[in-house]
Amino acid sequence: MAADPTPQPFADLADLRRALDGAATVDGDGLVVHDEAAFRGELTDRIAYTAVFGDDEAKAAARWVIRAAATALGAVSASIHDLYMAGGRGEYANRTAPAINVRGLTYDVARTIFRSAQATDNGIFLFEIARSEMGYTDQRPAEYATSVLAGAIREGHRGPVFVQGDHFQANAKKFAADPETEIQGVKDLAVEAIAAGFYNIDIDSSTLVDLTQSTLAEQQRNNYVRTAEVLRVIREHEPAGVTISVGGEIGEVGTQNSTVEDLRAFMDGFLPEVQRQGQAAGRDLTGISKISVQTGTSHGGVPLPDGTIADVKVDFQTLGDLSREARERYGLGGAVQHGASTLPETAFDRFAEANAIEVHLATAFQNQMYDSDAFPADLKTDIYAHLAANHANERKPDQTDAQFYYTTRKRGFGPFKRQLWDLPAETRAGIMADLAPSFELVMRRLGVAGSTDLVTRLVRPVAVHTPAPEALRTAAAR
Fold this sequence. Notes:
Elements: H1 13-20, E1 24-27, E2 30-33, H2 36-53, H3 56-72, E3 75-77, H4 81-88, E4 97-101, H5 106-119, E5 126-130, H6 131-136, H7 141-154, E6 159-169, H8 172-177, H9 179-196, E7 200-204, H10 216-237, E8 245-249, H11 260-281, E9 290-293, H12 316-330, E10 335-337, H13 348-353, E11 358-361, H14 363-371, H15 377-390, H16 401-408, H17 417-421, H18 425-445, H19 452-458, H20 470-477
Parallel strand pairs: 3-6, 4-5, 4-11, 5-6, 6-7, 7-8, 8-9, 9-10, 10-11
Antiparallel strand pairs: 1-2
Helix pairs in contact: 2-3, 2-7, 3-7, 5-7, 5-18, 7-9, 9-10, 10-11
């Protein structure tokens, strides 16, 4: 990959409008691209940068331009629901979708993922960000989706783009103090994400499972009731023609392993609850397409005193049993595995063998960025100093420095976002060169290489047009 110049945001809306002249025209609430090659070049770099760091007016316009241009150029935000349901019906098997959490340098990383997908002829991959990550990486849904779509434009991607809300999670302590306010926060986030083009959302009320209850059904009650409530809000706000892919979760990652009995307790309570929510809404509600389970992993892995990661034993037999039960008994796409990125390379084949529908990957790619020889040592020193000064309360009494920085350095992406995006082009290219082989390896081992035709056959993206910002529309009319 040749290093592109470090872009700069447009000074204002007028500057952005002038840059579009000759390449694209704002036409009401649509965008007509006249010069595709020009648009897909450095112009997209600058618009993407403006969408993150521009002034408020230019930022809103840049985000709209990227979304409209992506649609015009064939890279359309889409739901993976139909693909997963086809997997549940047995129309394909042993293909596990990588869902990649991008915490920093999102535009560059997205471009790298799209190139890796092209190199492996892969159409089954998702970009995701969790509720918690939005905070410490300083990326709200609109910004995140824009960076991903800009990456699709820049790399010439045509086809669906799957952007996913990961762990739209209820906080157990906040729920205990004020349940309605906490659940409303999850609902509000879902609505915000849908408006930004997130057509895949994982509801995570597994934090509300109450293991003190005497029966599995009672243990899962808060989980399935609240999941159904959020599902209803998602269905009421999804765009016409789009069935958002929604996931549920039965076991919080890092806790005890899930069982088939847990799955049944959740689903046998959830399905009637969905019916009740549908009756209240006056419409039938499509349920979930997948179910997240716990089979032995933890988010980020477990760091040892020297900073290396402890070996993890995933119970692939249980994962396979849960995925089969989800498909055959409940018609879902299958089971989802979280917290898997730090596993050894040889483990990824086994997710596809277990017929898991999706696996979530984050920390290993974050680690590769920080540990890349291209990552500036002085910037890492500044980030670690910030963590020591601002997150010392997160340090456990027996933690070594290596363990502390390993568990907290994810929190460096937000405060140092501008410094990361402003790295010299050759530095960013060096970091991406380290990431690309890992993305390609994961795609091949998860069985999704060569899946583009399958996605083309089963997924029909719906172009959802959003109103152009008034300032941009007015400027275009002059």
